[in-house]
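User: Can you predict the 3D structure of Ubiquinol-cytochrome c reductase iron-sulfur subunit? Sequence below.
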Amino acid sequence: MANEAVFDPADSGEPDHQGRRRFLTATTVAVGAVGAGFAAVPFIKSWNPSARAKLAGAPVTVDISALQEGQRLIVEWRGQPIWIVKRSRAILEALPTLDGELRDPRSENADQQPDYIQAESPELRSIKPEISVLVGLCTHLGCSPEMVAEIRPEPFDPNWKGGYFCPCHKSKFDMAGRVYQGVPAPTNLVVPPHHFTDDNTIVVGVDPGAA
Ligand code: FES
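Assistant: Sure. Here are the predicted structure tokens for Ubiquinol-cytochrome c reductase iron-sulfur subunit:
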């Protein structure tokens, strides 16, 4: 999708002016971009620190009030794309049925999510069941996987239950970012530290209770 293509984390490390210009352009476009394979959210409010502050790791506050089921909001934190996805009931019901096909179904690799995510929701990997927050970079070589959220047969998996597919080397993740067995990616997608300040506001980069 175009809104994924415009974000290039590699630009963030370039010291030259040309690189900085490209980064600022990418940041401007990436913050608030929404993709779902369905319809775009007409507007997403988010209020954020400067690009320089974000590179240093400043938290990013996101208003998700316009996010609909099946949609993905993409923001940027620490030079990485952060996906915020609203999952449907059908997707949530399908997730536990996939455990036998996954490499780390209960999120036991502690490097891939904060402790509170593993402790409270090892299968859904989220604070609220319907809202998934992930770092949108494949754990194989860092490509940004495609979201294929519909439950339907796909060319790469006739029993597809929705998830993320990385066309680079065909890694597959479910809608909780859990990696399938038998693919190049070694681990689940990363869940970044985050918390809710109210039903429609997420702060990425700060653990619950640490604000
Ligand atoms: S980078 Fe995703 S499968 Fe290789």
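Residues 2-204 form a domain with the Rieske Iron-sulfur Protein fold (CATH 2.102.10.10). The pocket of FE2/S2 (inorganic) cluster is lined by residues 138, 140-141, 143, 166, 168-169, 171, 184-185 (CB under 6 Å).
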